Amino acid sequence: MAKLFLATDTVKRSALCRLRLTPAEKRLLKQRASDAGVSLSSFMLNAALSKPMRSAAAATIINELIILNDQLKAGAATADVVDALREVEKLIDRIPTQLEDDLLNSP
Length: 107
Fold this sequence. Notes:
This protein folds into two domains: 24-53; 55-107. 65% of the residues lie in helices and 0% in strands. It has helices at 23-36, 40-48, 56-75, 79-105.
């Protein structure tokens, strides 16, 4: 398989690629790009090159869970807290896979 060459700060993208979409498809792509916090062009390029994209909201949730987990670990004293921490860790581990599945299975 050919190695992909990605533009860097020193190499600028100059080639254009056009495609036809329905208005509904374009709205959906724009919405997903907005949800991920990137431009439509970046979203489509990342999707085409199979780079995982995560919505800004999902990234925030993951970061908050990680902070919560760290805070709970710092104050863990009882068996109930330790059990809760284990569940939080399991949830954190499942989020990236679930997000990827959601993206692959979304219409």
